[in-house]
Design goal:
Elements: E1 2-3, E2 12-14, E3 17-22, H1 32-39, E4 46-49, E5 52-55, E6 59-64, E7 69-72, E8 75-78, H2 84-97, E9 103-109, E10 116-119, E11 132-138, E12 141-147, E13 154-159, E14 163-168, H3 171-174, E15 175-179, E16 189-195
Parallel strand pairs: 1-13
Antiparallel strand pairs: 2-3, 3-14, 4-5, 6-9, 7-8, 9-16, 10-15, 11-14, 11-16, 12-13, 12-15
Length: 202
C-alpha cells in the first residue's frame, strides 16, 4: 500500500511516530549547497558488506559540540567544531522544532548513484524517542519509509532543495528509511541531519 503525502501538510501523524515536512523552509536566495560543498571537510568512509570492505556510497562529515562522538554501522565519528554557517542553520531549525541539537551528521550525495539503504536512527546514544531534523540542499531526492511491522505499507517523500524534514516520537522504532538511487540525477545533494547525543561516548 502506497501512502499519499501532500508536501505542505503538517504533521503526518500516526500511532507509530510523527513526520513534519516544510517544502521551502530555508531562504531560497541563499546558495546553501555551494557554500556547504566548499566549506565542509568531507570524508570517504568504508563499510564491510558480505565479507568485503566497500566505500560508503556517499561522502560524510560530522560536526558538533566539543567531545561529542557518534557511532553508526561500526563507523566512529568525532565531532569537528561547528562553523558559523552550520550554527546559523542549526539555530533556525531549533526555533522551528523547539529542540536543542548538539551535533549534525552531513551526507553529500554526489549524484543519483549515491544513496542510503534502509536503516533507522535508533542508536542508544540518541535516547529513546529522538527528534531528527533533516535539511536538504541541491538536487531533489526521494526518501522512502517502510513500516517495520506492516511491511507492505510505505511512504515516499520528495525532498526538495531548501526543505526541512522532522522525525519525532516513536518513528525510529517503527519505521525504516532510505534515500533511493536514481540514474536520472546527475546533480549533487547535501543533507544535514541534526541530532542530540545523550551521552558523549558510545
Amino acid at each position: 500500500m502506497q501512502l499519499s503525502f501532500e508536501p505542505n501538510t503538517n504533521p503526518i501523524l500516526n500511532s507509530d511516530g510523527i513526520i513534519e515536512y516544510y517544502d521551502h523552509f530555508f531562504d531560497q536566495k541563499v546558495d546553501y549547497y555551494f557554500k556547504l560543498k566548499n566549506e565542509i571537510h568531507w570524508n570517504q568512509d568504508f563499510i564491510k558488506m558480505y565479507g568485503k570492505v566497500m566505500p560508503l556510497p556517499r561522502l560524510t562529515a560530522f560536526y558538533g559540540d566539543s567531545g561529542i562522538n557518534y557511532q553508526y554501522s561500526k563507523i566512529n565519528n568525532s565531532a569537528m567544531p561547528w562553523t558559523d554557517f552550520l550554527l546559523e542553520i542549526k539555530n533556525s531549525i531549533e526555533i522551528q522544532t523547539k529542540e536543542n541539537f548538539n551535533c549534525v551528521l552531513i551526507n553529500y550525495y554526489r549524484n543519483g548513484s549515491d544513496h542510503m539503504s534502509y536503516h533507522a536512527d535508533d542508536e542508544v546514544s540518541l535516547g529513546v524517542n529522538p527528534t531528527i531534523a533533516s535539511a536538504s540542499f541541491g538536487a531533489a531526492r526521494s526518501m522512502q519509509f517502510k513500516n517495520r511491522d506492516k511491511l507492505f505499507s510505505d511512504l515516499k517523500i520528495e525532498l526538495n532543495s531548501h526543505s526541512l524534514l522532522i522525525m519525532r516520537g516513536k518513528l525510529q522504532h517503527h519505521w525504516l528509511h532510505k534515500i533511493l538511487p536514481s540514474k536520472k540525477i546527475s546533480e549533487g545533494r547535501i543533507n544535514l541531519t541534526f541530532r542530540k547525543i545523550i551521552s558523549k561516548s558510545n
